[in-house]
Design a protein that fits this description.
It is a single chain. The protein has about 220 residues and is an alpha/beta fold. The protein has one domain (about 1-215): P-loop containing nucleotide triphosphate hydrolases (Rossmann fold), CATH 3.40.50. The protein contains eight helices and eight strands. The strands form two sheets. Strands 5-6-7-3-8 form a five-stranded parallel sheet, with helices on both faces. The chain is globular, with a radius of gyration of 17 Å. Bound molecules: adenosine-5'-triphosphate (ATP). Adenosine-5'-triphosphate binds near residues 39 and 43.
Length: about 220
């Protein structure tokens, strides 16, 4: 199974500049690929394209030949799950952690049996304002994993966290994805972090063929 972008171009409006310029990349099942680039380069835009949350202006994003999107008829969630930097914006402030996790359709016993290093049981009956930023990010990661994705796009997921919390969260995440054979695209402006967690690291500027060639 492969998550693939083939000559993907994207701009927000017909008169706007190209943000993603001819990007091609592939992430195989079980592989952790880093994507490095400076702020504003277009990494989050590419993340949304890879998760099917926006459609390329040109080119294709596929998971084994199909566009990434949920299969509503068969009640299967998107095989590509996106987790981003601001966990607090990704959860409903009025839902306790248990309800946020149950949103995936996971039964109570599966939620209760989550790796306690990822989501300690004591967090389950708290509201988002009663947990720390690092804990909230663990909840959004657990929710993405409960959706049983084939691929995870992790966009600056530890950018807000201190080094120790960051290391603990990546430790839990890598254990989970290695156990399940989930492919990961880890996006960050922090090159040493990517060198530590990824099997290989791509540079966003190198992928942007159009940055040299102009327009498609
Ligand atoms: N909804 C939008 N409408 C118009 N332009 C946008 C929109 N979202 C992002 N952009 C622009 O697209 C460009 C790339 O933004 P993007 O968020 O993808 O970069 P990034 O590499 O993820 O940056 P950062 O690391 O700072 O989050 C920026 O110039 C940004 O202003």
């Amino acid at each position: 199974m492969t998550l693939e972008a083939r000559d993907v171009w994207f701009r927000y409006g017909p008169r706007d500049p190209w943000v993603v310029r001819g990007v091609s990349l592939a992430v195989a099942a079980g592989e952790v690929v880093g994507l490095h680039g400076p702020s504003g380069a277009g990494k989050s835009t590419l993340a949304r394209l890879l998760a099917g949350m926006a459609a390329p202006s040109r080119g294709q994003v596929t998971v084994d030949g199909h566009p990434p999107r949920p299969n509503r008829r068969e009640r299967r969630p998107n095989p590509v799950q996106l987790v981003f930097q601001h966990a607090e914006l990704a959860v409903d402030p009025l839902w306790k952690v248990r309800a946020t996790l149950a949103e995936t359709g996971a039964p109570d016993e599966v939620i209760a049996a989550l790796d306690p290093e990822l989501v300690p049981p004591r967090l389950l009956d708290r509201f988002p304002h009663e947990i720390s930023g690092g804990e909230a990010q663990r909840v959004t990661l657990a929710r993405a994993l409960l959706a049983r994705p084939r691929f995870l796009v992790a966009d600056e997921i530890t950018a807000n966290l201190d080094a120790i919390t960051q290391a603990g969260l990546w430790h839990s995440l890598l254990a989970a994805v290695r156990a399940e054979g989930i492919g990961v695209l880890a996006i960050s402006h922090d090159r040493p972090l990517l060198d530590a967690v990824a099997d290989r690291v791509l540079d966003f500027a190198d992928l942007s063929r159009g940055a040299r060639a102009g327009t498609p």
